[in-house]
Amino acid sequence: MSYAQLEKFIFEKITQTKLPGLSMALIKGDEVVWSRGFGYRDVERGLPATDHSLYSIGSVTKSFTCLAIMQLVEQGKLSVDDPIEKYMPFDIHPYGETVCIKHFMSHTSGIAALGYAEQLIGAIIGSTEDWLPIATATDMLAFLQGAEDWVWTKPGERWFYFNEGYVLLGAIIEQVSGLSYEEYIHQHILAPLNMTRSFFAQKDVETDSDVAVPYVNWAQQGRTIGKYVYSGVGAAGGLISNVLDLAKYASMYLKNGQPVAKASSVAEMIKPRVNTPVVNGLFGDETYGYGLAAKSNFLGSKLVNHGGSVGVATAYMAFMPEQNIAAAILTNGSGYATGQFAMYGLAMLLGQDPEALPYVRHERQMMELEGVYQSFRNTMRFEIHRAGDCLMLKENDKFGTNSAILIPESIEPNLRRFYVQTNGVKVYTDFYVDDKGIQMIHERYLMHKTGTLS
What we know:
Helix content is 28%, strand content 29%. With 454 residues, it is an alpha+beta fold. The chain folds into two domains: 4-356, DD-peptidase/beta-lactamase superfamily (Beta-lactamase, 3-Layer(aba) Sandwich); 363-451, Lipocalin (Beta Barrel). Strands 3-2-1-13-12-11-10-9-8 form a nine-stranded antiparallel sheet, sandwiched between helices. The protein has an eight-stranded antiparallel barrel with strand order 14-15-16-17-18-19-20-21. The longest helix has 15 residues, at 163-177. It is globular and about 80 Å long. The mean pLDDT is 95.
């Protein structure tokens, strides 16, 4: 199979979003069928990204944490039904009920996200001057005092992504196993899977010869060198790895846990425990199990996945058990959604046309509308820019810029309808597309697309 189409897509998107570098691997069974790096692991020194380059995997670490919990369950050392307070002084009881290990694993404690990781990471990479001194689980317990007012539901009823709970899960692993969290993961997951270049410690990362520099990357404001987070995130998002090691990890799930866990443990991790807020999305409902999420209908099959971000790096791992395929992707900045790169590649492995994926088709149709529009004899001139899933209409003159957000209502090949919400009513803007060009009707004006944006 030729992967030129995938490579073209990746290059296009990292160019548009100004991502410094990206590494990706596609897997069938236990074989890496394609892998490579794009762009730079180090822009300043001109060093290219490779499929061996190290990046933070962020919250993909959560699946390692849950796999470790399931291993300890297999050993009879704990149960996912154990109360958190069995292991530490955790005294939040949502509506009088007990928070158990399984609730932290599935983000169903009933406590809304408290933003610890966001602020901790922001302080370390320099995006905020606020400080949150959470280095250990005991620090987390201190931070959680008073969080009773952030309880929203009973345990098990609703999904609230709860990084805080994963820090405490790491401490439970330490207490039950007698090892540090990092050493447990190394001995019981990384080493058996021969993931020889996956690390938690700064000294291990910084002495490696192929490390991606972390960047705070903004398409408009430019990029600055950031820092990886080596403390305070641990079991919630502290692992640094590469796509070839993650390929070994993904293959383990395709082999029902061999050689590190029983098939029943993997089945428990994948089993849906709660719906996420994405219902009837592009690929069906999205659910969460134990450290792994899932899309119910990606091209007719279940797609198990997890993403991660630490501000200076993004990650995504996905596998399709029924199809025996997987993908891993890592970047050293924020830009185009990593999951959408992965799904493009997985569609190719399935023999499907990735350009027919709904998000790709939508992007193409939106990009086609960007440009300069002019009325009769150029009496009026508007610019149309993409703004996420919307469009931005701009009218410039020497006194400034008038702008409006155009919200999509229907996107069809020949008619793409948007609206502006004004004084409680919808005012429509229609784009008519045919082989002669693009015409826009905005309020009273008929405009022709006459050029591209500078």
